[in-house]
UniProtKB/TrEMBL annotation:
<dbReference type="GO" id="GO:0033707">
    <property type="term" value="F:3''-deamino-3''-oxonicotianamine reductase activity"/>
</dbReference>
<dbReference type="Pfam" id="PF00248">
    <property type="entry name" value="Aldo_ket_red"/>
</dbReference>
<comment type="similarity">
    <text>Belongs to the aldo/keto reductase family.</text>
</comment>
<feature type="region of interest" description="Disordered">
    <location>
        <begin position="17"/>
        <end position="37"/>
    </location>
</feature>
<dbReference type="InterPro" id="IPR023210">
    <property type="entry name" value="NADP_OxRdtase_dom"/>
</dbReference>
<feature type="domain" description="NADP-dependent oxidoreductase">
    <location>
        <begin position="61"/>
        <end position="323"/>
    </location>
</feature>
<dbReference type="InterPro" id="IPR020471">
    <property type="entry name" value="AKR"/>
</dbReference>
<dbReference type="InterPro" id="IPR036812">
    <property type="entry name" value="NAD(P)_OxRdtase_dom_sf"/>
</dbReference>
<protein>
    <submittedName>
        <fullName>D-galacturonate reductase-like</fullName>
    </submittedName>
</protein>
<dbReference type="GO" id="GO:1990641">
    <property type="term" value="P:response to iron ion starvation"/>
</dbReference>
<dbReference type="InterPro" id="IPR018170">
    <property type="entry name" value="Aldo/ket_reductase_CS"/>
</dbReference>
<dbReference type="GO" id="GO:0019290">
    <property type="term" value="P:siderophore biosynthetic process"/>
</dbReference>
<keyword id="KW-0560">Oxidoreductase</keyword>
C-alpha cells in the first residue's frame, strides 16, 4: 500500500529560523502559503514556520503514544483527527503506532479526506536503544517502511540517552545504559536529512545543557525540541533559551499526561478551571491556548471525536493579561522523568543526572 507519490525533500538548512510569532490563524496561514503550501490547507489549525525556509508546522498535532496500545482505537483516532482538520500526526519507534498511522493516512488520502501526502506533517523519533551512530539511519528506514512513506517531516532523538542495542522497549534496565556518542548520533541524524529521508531533524527531552552540547558540534542545528510543557510545567528557561537560538519548542503532555489520571494537574487545576468557567471553556482548552500563546507547537492525545474537536477550538479567542498572570503563578511540577523509563532495580554505570535537570 502506498500513499501516492512524494516530492523531494527540502534543501539542507544550516541554521534554524526564528519561529513565526503571529498569534492569529489567518496571518500564520498566509505565511504558510508563501512557503508554497495551499492557503486552504487545514484552515482551522494555524502553523508556525520552522527552519530558514519557513517549513510550516501545525500548531496542534495528534499524539499516538498509548500504553497499552490498541490498534483500532489509534486508527480511528487518526482518521477522525484528519477528518476534523488535523494534519500533524506524532509517532515514534517506541509507540508501535507507526504502521497504524501510515495505514490510516493512506486511507485518508484514498477517501479524499486529505488531498495528498504533501498536506500531511509526520513526526517520528529514534529510541534510546537505537541512539548509536550506526543504528540511526536503519531505524529511520524501518520507521518509513512502517509508515509506508518516503520521508518524515520531522525526525527526533527521543531522549538524550543511549541503551544497549535492542528492539525499542521500556522500562529499560539501568545496567544497559551506555555512554551516548552525541556527535556520532547527530551526524547520523544529519545524514538522514541530507538523504531526504527527514525534512527536518530535532530532539526531544533535551535540557538547555544538552542543547548547548549539541549546538557546539552540530553542522545542522536542531529545528525542534519536543518537551513536557503545560501550565503546571512551564519550562520558561528552556523556552527562552530555544527562542534565542531559533529552535522551535513543541509541547507534549499539554494536558498533564496520563501517568496519574485520578489527579491530573492540568484538568483538575483550580486556576485553569476558574479561568475556563469565566470564559465558557474547559480547563484543557485554557491550557492549550496558553501553550499556543507561548509560540509553541503541541501534540495532544485524544481518542474521542469530542475531545479531538475541543482541542482545536482554541484559535478564535485569547487569554487576558489577568489570566496569564494567574497561570504564571501556578505551582510547578515535572511529571515525566528519565526514571519513568527505567526499571526500579539495578545500577547504571553511566551518570544520567543531567538528563533530568529541573529547569524552572
Amino acid at each position: 500500500m502506498h500513499i501516492l507519490n512524494f516530492s523531494p525533500a527540502y534543501s539542507i538548512y544550516t541554521i534554524p529560523a526564528t519561529p513565526h510569532k503571529h498569534r492569529g490563524p489567518h496571518k500564520q496561514q498566509g505565511m504558510a502559503s508563501l512557503a508554497g503550501r495551499s492557503s486552504t490547507r487545514h484552515s482551522k489549525i494555524p502553523e508556525f514556520l520552522v527552519a530558514p525556509i519557513g517549513q510550516p508546522m501545525p500548531a496542534v498535532g495528534l499524539g499516538t503514544a498509548s500504553h497499552p496500545f490498541v490498534e483500532e482505537e489509534a486508527r480511528a483516532a487518526v482518521l477522525t483527527a484528519l477528518e476534523l482538520g488535523y494534519r500533524h500526526i506524532d509517532t515514534a519507534a517506541l509507540y508501535a503506532s507507526e504502521r497504524v498511522v501510515g495505514e490510516a493516512m493512506a486511507e485518508a488520502v484514498r477517501c479524499g479526506i486529505v488531498a495528498s501526502r504533501e498536506d500531511l506533517f509526520v513526526t517520528s523519533k529514534v529510541w534510546c536503544t537505537q541512539c548509536h551512530p550506526q543504528l540511526v539511519l536503519p531505524s529511520l528506514k524501518e520507521s518509513l517502511q512502517n509508515l509506508q512513506m518516503e520521508y518524515v517531516d520531522l525526525y527526533l532523538i527521543h531522549w538524550p540517552m543511549a541503551v544497549k542495542p535492542s528492539k525499542p522497549h521500556f522500562p529499560m534496565k539501568r545496567e544497559d545504559i551506555v555512554p551516548m556518542d552525541l556527535r556520532g548520533v547527530w551526524q547520523a541524524m544529519e545524514e538522514c536529512h541530507q538523504l531526504g529521508l527527514a525534512k527536518m531533524i530535532g530532539v526531544s527531552n533535551f535540557t538547555t545543557k544538552k542543547l548547548q552540547e549539541l549546538l557546539a558540534i552540530a553542522k545542522i542545528p536542531p529545528a525542534v525540541n519536543q518537551v513536557e510543557l503545560n501550565p503546571t510545567w512551564q519550562q520558561k528557561k528552556l523556552i527562552e533559551f530555544c527562542k534565542d537560538r531559533s529552535i522551535q519548542v513543541a509541547a507534549y503532555s499539554p494536558l498533564g499526561g496520563q501517568r496519574i489520571p485520578k489527579m491530573n494537574p492540568v484538568r483538575q487545576s483550580d486556576v485553569l478551571g476558574e479561568i475556563g468557567r469565566a470564559r465558557g471553556k474547559s480547563a484543557a482548552q485554557i491550557s492549550l491556548r496558553w501553550i499556543y500563546e507561548q509560540g509553541t507547537n503541541m501534540v495532544v492525545k485524544s481518542l474521542k471525536r469530542e475531545g479531538l474537536k475541543e482541542n482545536i477550538e482554541i484559535f478564535d479567542w485569547e487569554l487576558s493579561d489577568g489570566d496569564r498572570l494567574k497561570i504564571g503563578q501556578i505551582p510547578q511540577r515535572k511529571l515525566i522523568t528519565v526514571q519513568n523509563l527505567l526499571c526500579p532495580e539495578g545500577i547504571s554505570s553511566v551518570d544520567i543526572s543531567d538528563v533530568d535537570v529541573l529547569e524552572m
